[in-house]
Amino acid sequence: MAKNVRVRFAPSPTGPLHIGGVRTALFNYLFAKKHGGDFILRIEDTDQNRYVEGAEQYIINALNWCGMPFDEGVGKEGNFGPYRQSERKHIYKQYADQLITSGNAYYAFDTAEELDYHRKDHEAKGKTFIYNWHNRLKLNNSLSLSAEDVQAKLEAGQDYVIRFKSPQDQTLHLTDIIRGDIKIDSSVLDDKVLFKSDGMPTYHLANIVDDHLMQITHVIRGEEWLPSLALHYQLYQALDWETPEFAHLPLILKPTGKGKLSKRDGDKLGFPVFPLEWTDPKTQETSRGYKEDGYFPEAMVNFLAFLGWNPGTEQEIFSMEELIQAFDLNRVNKSGARFDPDKIKWFNHHYMQQQSNEALAIAFQQERSELAEIDINFIAIVIELIKERATFVSDFWDLSHFFFIAPETYDDKAVKKAFKEGTSDILNEVITQMDPIEDFTVETLQNTIKGWITSNNIGFGKVMMPLRLALVGALQGPDVFDIIFMIGKQESIKRIKNAINTISI
Q1: Beta strand 218-222 with 245-249: parallel, antiparallel or unpaired?
Q2: SS3 338
Q3: Residue 207: closest CA among 5, 4, 3, 8
Q4: Which residues participate in the annotated binding site?
Q5: Can you tell me whether residue 60 is helix, strand or coil?
Q6: Which of 51, 61, 104, 130 is placed for a possible disulfide with 238 were both Cys, Cβ 3.0 to 4.6 Å?
Q7: Position of motif 'KMSKS' region (predicted)?
Q8: What pLDDT digit, counting tens, does each position of 378-407 carry?
Q9: What are the backbone angles phi and psi of residue 463, rounded to the nearest 5°?
Q10: What's phi and psi for 145, nearest 5 deg?
Q11: Per-residue model confidence (pLDDT) at position 465
Q12: Are 131 and 201 in contact (CB under 8 A)?
């Protein structure tokens, strides 16, 4: 690509960033980095009625947590700011005026009541009201009024909007990187409002002007913007600007594969749809986040990359650097991508195994008050023994609590399975074998206990099951000799004696 690639992620600060928005940001980020380009964050906050306090910072925090820092944007001013649309209000009117001058747009003075009347009148006749070529000359606008009347209305300060003059009977040829060539009959398009009566641009005008002035080369956005593509193409042509390349990403679907993923789906099925936890400033309702639920950012990024894209190989585990090298918009699918909550857990399990035991030990210690006084190195060794069975740090306690505290109860089913007549005698003999060992290592323990079992021709299960139950309180956990070594000789003997005295058959 000859031009310096510049892409933008342009969310509205109307609440927390949905997982679909994170995926859009990710694909923009990967594309920019693949081509040595710039990833820009633009905050589209022209709709002040829907503005939510804290949402802008949330978006920035979410991108940073995911490992997708933007190159330019709010707080990282480049040469194309400001990066909040609300701070660019003074820019847009001149381009709306330019479109009127060139005949590509017009003033419309229709009141809300007049438009409502036309809609209801059409509904009564079984039709849909569309403001465009077939009726605009009959409506209250600068195309149907004399120049004098228009001037008088403007000078009197009458409310107006500026509408785009959509052409009649033209076939528009549009191109999308993902969807290929698209043909649209211009006659079915309405004359969209570009500039509102409150002096603010609509999304369509502001979006085009900002993309042009910020020298955006590729617009990578969600499928929901596909219906706007025809208008945006026409606006570029009408303003005599070079059109960027467009790519519309497929929808992220519910786990059932039917319909767009929503927060309600997450609430119903028990998984987050936001990267970070969010508390609504008005209702104080808190929504779960992937970070707080114990997911690693690498797992979420790896998972999201596969929602609508595939590398064309069997490889599933990708670092961010590998994703950047492999990413290609031509390998993004047109059809929707099903959100699979179990698959992101699979990714998280993988990334759990890649974490250092020391880092996991710190996270585990911070999560459980019982570990506050425990040596971090001891916790790290425990984690090495159990992390293969864990998906989240929050799983560690169930998998390892017996390393830190003695069992107070014993699982009923396990007792019935492990404790038989003569079991207490066997466990007493285990103590007798264990107590004199001076070189107390896992290997010495194994050799001593297993040697005794073999030489006395005792079934291994008759010894190892009740021994595990005595140490753990259940038939779970890593190798018994690892447990004995970790908790130490005296603690192990104490637990075995307690089981002998407590469990009755």
Answers
A1: parallel
A2: strand
A3: 8
A4: 263
A5: helix
A6: 104
A7: 260-264
A8: 999 999 999 999 999 999 999 999 999 999
A9: -100, -50
A10: -95, 160
A11: 96
A12: no
Q: How far apart (Å, rounded) are the C-alpha atoms in residues 464 and 480? A: 8
CB 293 within 8 A of CB 322: no
Give the contacts of 418 (CB within 8 A, at least 6 positions apart): 465, 466, 468, 469, 475
- What are the helix (H) ranges across 189-340? 203-213, 229-238, 263-269, 297-305, 320-326
Asked if 47 and 85 touch (Cβ cutoff 8 Å), the reply is: no
Is 89 a catalytic site residue?
no
**DSSP code of residue 221:** E
Provide the sign of the torsion angle of the four alpha carbons 227, 228, 234, 237, taken in this order: negative
What is the token pair recorded at 50? 């829907």
Length of the chain, please?
505
105-108 and 38-41 beta bridge pairing: unpaired
Within 102-246, where are the H helices?
112-124, 147-155, 203-213, 229-238
**Active-site choice (260, 263, 450, 489):** 263
Within 8 A by CB and 6+ apart from 181, the residues are 173, 174, 175
Binding residues for ATP, by number, are: 263
Which of residues 169 and 99 earns the better pLDDT score? Answer: 99
